[in-house]
Fold:
Amino acid sequence: MTIIHQNDTHGYLQEHPEMFWKSGSTIHEVGGFSRIHHHVRDVKKNTTNVLFVDGGDLFHGTAPLVLTNGEGILPLLKEMEIDAFVPGNWDYAYGKSQLLNLVSQLPFPALACNLKDKETNQFLFQPYTVKELNDVKVGIIGATYPYVHETMADNFSKGLSFSLGVDEIERSVDILKQQNVDVIILLSHMGLPLDYKIASLVDGISIILSGHSHDRTSSPIINNDTLIIQAGSSSSFLGQIEITCKEGKIVEYKHQLISLTAKEYKKDETINEIIEEILKPFKEMEQDVIGKTDTLLHRMTLNEAPMDKLITDAYMHGFDGDIAFSHGWRYGVPIVPGEITMNHLYNMIPTNPEVFQLDVEGQLLYNVLEKNLELVFSSDPFNQKGGYILRSSGLMMTYKPYNPKGNRIQYLEINGEPYLSSKTYKIIGAGDQLFKGLHNQKKYKKIHSIDVIKNYLSDIPSFKNDGMGKIISI
Structure:
């Protein structure tokens, strides 16, 4: 059988710039749902026993989705021939009732064995499904991101209960074995490190189709006889694996990470028309030029990234602060040097949160930075709950990523001066994910991120990142 997998598409319906690492970085135009659909249909025409599944973060990430509470993409999904879907952490952004509304309109099931309705203690979605192809019986288990209540804004998880899912996955595997399925697939939005550990703890999973961490696995990772693959992000890639099974064991496989380039992959005209209709109300945003950049803006690096440097520099330009922070998000495709439009700004920070000031003592700031490093680098995958390192302006930090928890920072400097634990620092930021738990101490500025960035870009000729590393792994 052949399994095709997309994950973390984040609302990138059309082709777009994507960064590739080959003797440095290069940019190519790739992706889009039209190419995905054409490829999937082409495979189905020429091959029997084909599954196409989505690994989450399907309803959030760009203006056409965020400004319609996820509903903008529904006409497209009804044509995409997807067999199953697991919600990602950003799919909860509009709240429980809206997620249920969105899923109710899908022609394919949402799966999540580790998600329950808090009021009823019942599964919000079915934990697994069984697909019977021509001569293959496949069990698909869904595992959603387990830390939504810890790492995302409070409204994401209201009325919902999340668990790590190890027991639930194991129970689902046992049930599916009793139903004599040929192949058991875990469709996961847990992230690659957690998926690797799950494979070591639960026997009987044939394949884990991973999501959340935006990894581009060029060949399967194997653990406990389980093949683990992930397919990048932003509709730029597909994962495709052809397997041969005997007596419930994979005896042969062929995998490829597909880069959806214009040269190699065609578009589907019907899907093109649907996408054009979806994007029609947002055309003005694509033409509304806000400013310019001399620097390639991206989020492809762990310590710092120029896309977030633009955001934090804008915060520092707009307000009197010692440090500005932006969350270590992974989403957002590169913006090439040249004009920056309103559409680019929504791709960069689709939540458009309100800016706040927060005054904190140095010791608390130090603890927050150490906690962030633990969330990114913990030796236990179950404790890796962050994206990338917090992005900042005004901060200089050296750290050792593999030191013990709470002991990674080697040197810390604020605004060119050595950090003092007793000093109070003025922080500028935006969004509930930043300094979660200190909401009552935040002084909101009655202006949102996108307007602050617009003001900054209008005051400078063009954004240019100096390229000097301020967050340094040693």
